[in-house]
């Protein structure tokens, strides 16, 4: 069940707003071309934009004005059949949408598809990412008691590949991050704190899904995360779950002050994993609203969460969207782990395609295959 654009999209006063829902294939012919004004987070004209993601940059650089000299109206970075509306707002949609994946990536100037061969040889251009999105050393875990990897430096093959600029298409692809969890736990607040550095005290329920794209520079290589915010309300679960597929990272959020939301985390993770290949996703368990707890209460909540994180084979983090505590460090860790896996997978893909000779024969491998996080992952519950 998915909402139709005209049914869900409402003005601030609750009046239906005509027009298509960006990202909806049914309205594809009516959608404006993705916009890129050179100062956007996608960078220059050669960058790919998901269809319908009207991009006016991150607000730091000059914006293009219309013919009346007006500033463009602020756009949601990735609006996909969803809208945050005041509590109690209803969703009446009933159609299915395919999440816009890489298949719909377009050249942001011409709107034409970039042929695969050409895309792989493109070097990202445009402005560099902001300083706090530059990751040069491997970001540390929150606690060694529940972490996905204890190493504090990049994998040797990844460092070498980055130094030689041999990271294939990694810099041009997006890694998908899906954030799930009960309603009101603070998923949207966490994403907005990181992507926009804002915090809103008012609760507005997410309907369906929404996404943001964040550009990083990891070990000197451009890298982007597509961060999907999903609705926690049960009645929107069927919409949100359609977007779980193809995730490289699953973030299960719970409210540190509400133990029930921690108990529900396991179910959220199961639902998200069901839509993905086994072992394909990094899993994080994130306790939100850390500012509301202190001392013994905080320690107790964290101890319970660490226990569950180990059962879920997840990395644990406590954060506060209100104060911003640990938010940047957390997403840097997510980006570094996702980047490292992407580079290793790319190396592996390229080495196996080199081994493939005409007629499908495969030459026996002489050296070691590049190690992937999956192949290194222990089978026990703790992955540290
Ligand atoms: N004190 C405090 N409040 C927070 C924090 N994060 C979120 N909140 C508040 O918690 C409420 C819910 O936050 P949201 O981000 O809308 O929650 P959500 O998980 O996205 O909710 P759904 O969209 O319904 O799934 C809002 O009133 C926020 O202001 C935090 O770190 N500290």
From TrEMBL:
Cofactor annotation: Mg(2+)
How is the protein disposed in the membrane? Lipid-anchor
What's one Pfam family the UniProt record gives for this protein?
Answer: Ras
Q: Where is this region: Disordered?
A: 1-30, 47-128, 364-384
**Enzyme superclass (EC):** hydrolase
Q: What catalytic activity is recorded?
A: GTP + H2O = GDP + phosphate + H(+)
* This protein's name: Ras-related protein Rab-36
């Amino acid at each position: 069940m998915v909402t139709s654009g005209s049914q869900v999209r409402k003005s601030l006063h609750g009046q239906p707003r005509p027009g298509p829902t960006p990202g909806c294939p049914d309205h594809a012919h009516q959608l404006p071309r993705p916009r890129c004004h050179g100062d956007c987070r996608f960078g220059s004209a050669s960058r790919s934009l998901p269809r319908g993601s009207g991009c006016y940059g991150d607000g730091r650089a000059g914006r293009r004005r219309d013919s009346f000299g007006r500033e463009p109206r602020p756009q949601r970075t990735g609006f996909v059949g969803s809208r945050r509306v005041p509590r109690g707002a209803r969703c009446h949609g009933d159609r299915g949408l395919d999440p816009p994946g890489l298949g719909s990536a377009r050249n942001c100037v011409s709107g034409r598809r970039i042929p695969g061969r050409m895309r792989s040889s493109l070097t990202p251009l445009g402005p560099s990412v902001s300083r706090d999105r530059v990751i040069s050393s491997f970001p540390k875990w929150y606690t060694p008691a529940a972490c996905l990897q204890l190493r504090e430096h990049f994998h040797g093959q990844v460092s070498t590949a980055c130094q030689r600029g041999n990271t294939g298409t990694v810099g041009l692809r997006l890694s998908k991050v899906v954030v799930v969890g009960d309603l009101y736990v603070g998923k949207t607040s966490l994403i907005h704190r990181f992507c926009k550095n804002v915090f809103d005290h008012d609760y507005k329920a997410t309907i369906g899904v929404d996404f943001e794209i964040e550009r990083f520079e990891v070990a000197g290589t451009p890298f982007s995360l597509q961060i999907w915010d999903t609705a926690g309300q049960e009645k929107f679960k069927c919409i949100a779950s359609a977007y779980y597929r193809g995730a490289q990272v699953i973030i299960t959020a719970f409210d540190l002050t509400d133990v029930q939301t921690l108990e529900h985390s396991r179910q959220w993770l199961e639902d998200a994993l069901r839509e993905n290949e086994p072992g394909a996703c990094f899993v994080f368990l994130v306790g939100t609203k850390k500012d509301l707890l202190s001392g013994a209460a905080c320690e107790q909540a964290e101890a319970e969460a660490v226990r569950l994180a180990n059962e879920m084979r997840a990395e644990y983090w406590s954060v506060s969207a209100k104060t911003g505590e640990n938010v940047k460090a957390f997403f840097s860790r997510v980006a570094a782990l996702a980047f490292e896996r992407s580079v290793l997978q790319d190396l592996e893909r390229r080495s196996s395609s080199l081994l493939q000779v005409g007629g499908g024969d495969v030459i026996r491998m002489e050296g070691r295959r590049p190690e992937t996080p999956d192949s290194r992952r222990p089978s026990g519950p703790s992955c540290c």
